[in-house]
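lol ok so funny story. i was supposed to be doing the assay writeup but got distracted and ended up predicting the structure for this chain instead. priorities right. anyway since i did it might as well share w the group, maybe its usefull for someone
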Amino acid sequence: MTLRGDITLSDVEELRELMIQAIETQQAVLINCSETTYIDTSALQFLASLRIEARSLGVALQIEGLPGSVLADATPRGSAAGSTDHRMAG
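and the output, tada:
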């Protein structure tokens, strides 16, 4: 699965539904973040909690491709007015 564009608090609920479905139906899940341009702290928190959830289900969850600039900018930025395409490809 590939995350694209800005990932913010407003995207987390939709992502949660998609990701939970993935970890409940697969033995291993790879989340590619190399095409993200911004991830706020709520989305990073979500990815961390998803990893814990996957581990509890015995699913290998790998998150890769978080650009350093995305992590450096991971601070609350307010609303998702600047949010772009956050859909996943997989």
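The chain has a mean pLDDT of 82. Residues 2-68 form a domain with the Transcription Regulator spoIIAA fold (CATH 3.30.750.24).
back to the writeup now i swear
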